Amino acid sequence: QVQLMETGGGSVDTGASMNLSCVANGINFRDYCMAWFRQAPGKEREGVFYITPNNGAYDFGASEGRFTISKDDAKNILYLQMNNLKPEDTAIYYCAARHGVAPSPLDEDNYNNWGQGTQVTVSS
Fold this sequence. Notes:
- With 124 residues, this protein is mostly beta strands.
- 0% of the residues lie in helices and 51% in strands.
């Protein structure tokens, strides 16, 4: 059974940094693509970042270059380093996983494994 659990969220002021983690159980990271999505209040969930099994990283543009994705295959942990946070980054952040490579990484229907999400709140 695949389990994904996000940690590292919280409340910060504008300009702060935050590092989210997603621990995965039940999968081999080297065989899965991973992604970060977020959902702000009243908005649809949007893709933030995507990483392939071979560590190819793709920024979907939501962070305007302020975020970085990485993973530790040995520990099965996915990270999202977020810098210079803004109030518009306030959202629930989710990690998602799919075996292999996602044909359409931005489409959340491509992922069949999701975490519960972690709340990130940025105050102005």
